[in-house]
Specification:
The protein has about 160 residues and is mainly alpha-helical. It has helices at about 10-15, 65, 70-85, 90-110, 120-140, 150-160; strands at about 25, 35.
Length: about 160
């Protein structure tokens, strides 16, 4: 049997030099990248990390310290759930809403927040802020003796629920 030439595709050194430019290209017979299909692959092999999804602490820090922003938000939510479980519903839900608002602030101020970054920075901030604000407002309007009374909501309820 003859040995393969140094420029052939079966040569490992030549294969190492093949550069695949995008996720759906494949080398042709000569080893050059070509676009095999215009369709997207059935299975995604890799995804881009969200903007700001890097470590929140240096690499040599222990694992929990690298994810301190998400752990702080989760610990605050956990404390809020605990308060809710021990019959302090208003304070517990208020704390949960404040934790989400703090997550929005952390996502806005810090360049890298670890696993607190799920989507783009704008989408994360908007999601955390809207949900946190809604939970805080609902916690302040809870009956009996609400801290916040919005008059038009009472009128809306009057028109939707009949007494008969």
């Amino acid at each position: 049997m003859s040995e393969p030439e140094s420029g052939s595709v079966s040569d490992p050194e030549a294969q190492a030099g093949i550069v695949v430019r995008d996720a759906i290209s494949a080398p042709d017979v000569d080893g050059r990248p070509r676009r095999a299909t215009r369709r997207f692959p059935l299975f995604t092999r890799d995804t881009a990390r969200p903007e700001g999804g890097g470590r929140a602490a240096p690499r040599d820090a222990p694992a929990p310290a690298r994810q301190w922003p998400v752990l702080a938000v989760l610990a605050t939510v956990g404390l809020g759930l605990l308060l809710t479980a021990v019959d302090r519903f208003r304070y517990g839900t208020l704390l949960i809403g404040v934790a989400l608002l703090a997550g929005a602030v952390l996502r806005w101020l810090l360049p890298d927040v670890g696993m607190l970054a799920v989507r783009s920075r704008f989408t994360d901030i908007a999601t955390y802020a809207v949900l946190g604000t809604a939970i805080v407002l609902l916690a302040m309007m809870v009956q009996p003796n609400p801290w916040l009374v919005i008059p038009f909501l009472k009128d809306t309820l009057h028109f939707t629920v009949s007494s008969s």
